[in-house]
Amino acid sequence: MFRLIGYAAAALSALMLALFPAFCNAEEAEEDELTPELIRQIGLLDLEGWDSFFREEGFLSASGFAGADELLLALAEGKTEEPAGLFDALRAIARKELKASLGVFAALAAAAAVTALPALIPDDGIKPVLGLALCLTAAALSVGAFSALCGRTYAAVKRAEKLTEYSVPVISGMLAAMGSPASAGVMKPLMVFLSGTVLGSIESFALPVSAVCGVLAAANCISGEGRLSGFVKLAGTAVRSLLGIMSAVFAGVTAVRGMTMGLKDGVAIRTARYALGRMVPIVGSMVSGTAESIMGCALLVKNGIGAAAALLIVSVMAAPIFALVSALVIFRAAAAFSGAFADMRIVRLYSDMAEAIKNLLACAAAAASMFAAVVAVFIAAGGMTAGLW
């Protein structure tokens, strides 16, 4: 689990590092000279899918932009909020999810505490019936909280899949506009593979198995003998192992393709520059300079696309991941707290539920990290292709 979260953090960090040089270049140029060319290049992109996604997420209205083109222009010109604003928003999300989890913890602790009541009743005939009823109450409460987390995780992965699909024409179109057909030819199938196969596998296999873990945890509590705990751990290990292998392989393939896909395009662009500058007398150097300026604007637009994609994946996945982390801590704490006095079936229930939540967290972290890795490679490859790194 923590390895997958580390992959997500590393991919997002690499993405931000890849964005940095291009935005530095933007500050060195005159804004009035860049803006018309930036607007022209943004107008060539197919932004219909992104516009639709932005409006579905409420991203444009919250940010004050009328469309995706205005957002990309602001990102390309460096006019958006400072990173501190994003960190403040993430802290606000974390506080909100933590407060909501504290209420769940109070309910879980109370449900665990009342399971100690049967021990105070002298009538042995009532004890098992009352104990079972109280365990059913705690199981229903836990299943309700877990079901809500399953719904949020599934919706987040589904939105990440849709975001990937909508990003295909934008990213491949930008690389083609930069004169990088080889890079565009690599990125398009890579993103289609991410949305159709990788995220589809998480949605159709990993998440259902994780949900089954929650059901098994509740059944394990009701049975009272704890014989299903092994199945819960086995299913969790299978899900996390599959996600870990899938993430490692995808990250490796993405990194290798990212390092090699810009070489052919970069050589072609440098050759064209040399030919324009050396072989056409007088005018050649002017044309070469103009082409380099256009390529620099394309690089800014491309990095604006990467920044927009990064903001969107954060807006989609941040709240569910914080909610899952908070829930995982809460269920672990509830299991530890109730272990001193509650029915052992409840302790086992909370521990098994924490194991199931860990699987959901692994699914969300894997989806976020793999999307971030693709965007980071897109940004870095575009910079190498333009020859501006």
Structural class, please?
Answer: mainly alpha
C-alpha Rg (nearest Å): 26 Å
Q: How many helical elements?
A: 11
Beta strands, count: 0
Contiguous runs where pLDDT drops below 50 for at least 5 residues? 14-31, 282-289, 384-389
Q: How many distinct domains?
A: 1
Calculate the mean pLDDT score and round it.
75
Helix content: over 70%
Shape: elongated
The proportion of strand residues reads: under 5%
Largest sheet: number of strands, sense, barrel closure = none
The SSE order reads HHHHHHHHHHH
Distance between the termini: 34 Å
Q: Could you describe the 3D structure shown?
A:
- This protein is an all-alpha fold and about 400 residues long.
- The protein has one domain.
- It has 11 helices and no strands.
- The protein has helices at about 1-30, 30-45, 50-55, 60-65, 70-75, 85-115, 125-175, 180-225, 230-280, 285-340, 345-385.
- The protein is elongated.
List the defining traits of the structure above.
disordered C terminus, elongated
Protein topology:
Elements (H helix, E strand, L loop, with lengths): L1 H27 L2 H13 L4 H10 L1 H5 L4 H10 L5 H32 L11 H52 L3 H43 L5 H51 L3 H56 L5 H43 L3
Helix pairs in contact: 1-10, 1-11, 2-5, 2-10, 3-7, 5-10, 6-7, 6-10, 7-8, 7-10, 7-11, 8-9, 8-11, 9-10, 9-11, 10-11
